[in-house]
Specification:
By secondary structure, the protein is an alpha+beta fold. The chain folds into 2 domains: 2-133, no CATH class; 138-323, Alpha-D-Glucose-1,6-Bisphosphate, Chain A, domain 4 (2-Layer Sandwich). It has helices at 2-28, 36-55, 58-74, 80-91, 98-103, 111-133, 140-144, 150-153, 175-184, 192-208, 228-233, 293-323, and strands at residues 137-138, 159-167, 241-242, 245-251, 254-260, 265-275, 278-288. Helix 2 (36-55) packs antiparallel against helix 3.
């Protein structure tokens, strides 16, 4: 009896924390983007949870618990304790003995309650990811119309997808400014979805030998297409290796890297463009097929890339950018700095 009453109090407190984070998230974690959609989602979930506790509704609590887990999957790590701990507290409401919980109006979770929680988890994660991705992808034609070196250098390599996001309040930034801000970003900005998918990709790639050095030979590299002028203009050494990426060039307003493995040969191009009173960051992926698995592989990973990986990366980067002064000196690809 006493234990069940205590857990009920903890559940009330957990819902207050969820609702509080929905209202005050940007002030609690200013270094990460707490999107308005996530904030509204948490306020709605907290309200539903209060209703479930008040009316002793097992299904409402299962819905809220699953919804919080789904939100945690696509929210920054900084929000993790504000979502996971309340979800666990609500989940514990149905784990007392039947006699104790019935005295407080609750019963053990039924199959229906578990199904509702799983549905809420997947549904809320998908909803939050879809909202985050909305408005970021642009057409291939729009990307190819930009005056970027990659559009001529890699003209025969198809653009797989392209993205753009506004960078406000910073006049005429350079690629080096972007690199500095990216390096200064907090690890807490990453999402569990991004980290989990990266680990999964690394494990699967290791099992199937996709990262074997034989795939990344310079003979197949896009480096061979660079002119002497491209190399001279680059502020970073062409061919410099950064983890799985190889630098092609880094101009003041555009940079490109490549990765070559057993599934695809991918070039990632980041460029800056001025539009009206704002600067936009453009990101595109050009994919060259290395064998018959390339198309299948890209189709399989596209949902994860387009919903759970690049939208969160772009939005968290833009959030960091808009909080910092682009003009401060810092480390860049050119090797300046400590």
């Amino acid at each position: 009896m006493r234990s069940a009453a205590l857990r009920k109090v903890v559940a009330w407190a957990a819902l207050v924390a969820v609702g509080g984070y929905g209202v005050l998230g940007p002030w609690i974690n200013p270094s990460v983007e707490v999107a308005n959609a996530l904030r509204l989602d948490l306020v709605v979930l907290a309200t539903m949870g209060f209703f479930g506790l008040w009316n002793r509704s097992e299904l409402h609590l299962s819905l809220v618990s699953g919804g919080l887990l789904g939100a945690a999957f696509v929210a920054p790590w900084a929000a993790f304790p504000w979502l996971i701990l309340p979800a666990l507290a609500l989940g514990r409401m149905g784990r007392e003995s039947r006699e104790s919980t019935e005295a407080h109006g609750f019963r053990r979770p039924t199959g229906l309650a578990i199904a509702v929680a799983v549905f809420a988890l997947t549904g809320n994660a998908t909803l939050m990811a879809a909202i985050s991705a909305r408005g970021l992808r642009i057409s291939v034609e729009e990307m190819e119309a930009r005056d970027f070196r990659a559009n001529s250098l890699l003209e025969d390599v198809p653009v797989h997808d392209a993205w753009a996001i506004d960078l406000t309040d910073r006049p005429s930034p350079t690629v080096d400014d972007l690199i500095r801000v990216f390096k200064d970003g907090s690890p807490l900005q990453a999402t569990p979805a991004f980290v989990g998918l990266s680990i999964l990709r690394g494990v699967v790639g290791g099992v199937f030998g996709w990262e074997d050095p034989r795939w990344s030979g310079v003979s197949s590299s896009f480096l061979n297409r660079l002119t002497d002028d491209d190399r001279d203009r680059s502020t970073a050494a062409s061919g410099q290796v950064l983890d799985i990426w190889r630098v092609l060039y880094a101009f003041p307003q555009e940079a490109a890297v490549e990765t070559l493995n057993g599934t695809a040969h991918v070039a990632v191009i980041a460029g800056l463009g001025e539009e009206l009173d704002r600067t936009r960051l453009f990101l595109s992926f050009r994919v060259r097929e290395v064998n018959w698995t390339t198309r299948i592989y890209m189709r399989l990973i596209d949902p994860a890339r387009r919903w759970f990986v690049y939208p969160s990366l772009l939005r968290q980067f833009a959030h960091t950018w808009n909080r910092e002064s682009w003009s401060s000196s810092g480390e860049s690809l050119s090797g300046e700095g400590p």
